[in-house]
Amino acid sequence: MPDSFYMETKNSPTVCDYEGSDYQTSFWDQGGREYEDRTEAIALKRLLPESGQLMLELGAGAGRNTPRYAGFERVVLLDYSTTQLQQAQARLGKSDRYIFVAADVYRLPFVDGLFDGATMIRTLHHMADAPRALAQIRKVLQPGSIFSLEFASKLNLTSILRYLLGRQAWSPFSQEPVEFVELNFDFHPKAVRNWLQELGFHIERTLTVSHFRLGLLKRLIPTGILVALDSLAQWTGSLWQLTPSVFVRAGLGGERSGVIPFGEVLQWFKCPGCGNAPLENHDDYLQCSSCGSRWAFRDGIYDFREPSDK
Fold first, then answer.
1. Is the full-model pTM beyond 0.85?
2. CA-CA 20 to 30 A from 117: which of 58, 77, 137, 175?
């Protein structure tokens, strides 16, 4: 990872910064992850609503999953890394359907109740304060929204076996998150459910994914067979969660308002510093009329990580 992988942000926990990383190429395109990618695509298809207006993709990276949100009219891709968003632009093209935003998940730059859908895939495991991140997401969702979340589970068969054999110090059965590598966390499924329910979400569906994430199996068994088996096994998520990856569909009660201001993207944003909205448009930056902070707009990317020079 680049030297700037771990970034301290103002009034926020440390965040992961993939600036300059070749993660999409090295991990997904050339890393032998076809099995994981295909099984995640199946899980997403089962969890996503058929249609929607405005999707928030948290931790969008280079846009690997973005084409899978075809049912939504527009998608906001949010990532802390501008280079990841630039890769997403190259993959998806620049169009009115996609809005690219560089921001800290702990300080989302959106007005409350804006989105009617959100996803967070392979991102929560980088959250040092997961409940705080989830609370931010809850604020920007409107009633009737669907939140599709993936998280890395500590209660997986490998961890259980290692613990019982004395090869692992931490317990997979406790509800506390475990940081196995700096800023890489595994979570207990019950803890994640509790956090979501405390925020007013109700769990509509749980899927277990990557049942066969073992190098030996992926080398010996054709990918298509493993994917088909995993597809069948995903439905066991309603009974138990013993895989390294768990997907949940969490819904908010109420009816969708249907008042998303499509005509003017600038109405979507608030100042992540003081919370003021709306922001003033100055072509290459947005300015907060309350605290004076300027937020850059460069090459089609809104940058809300740190204020630019006043």
1. yes
2. 175
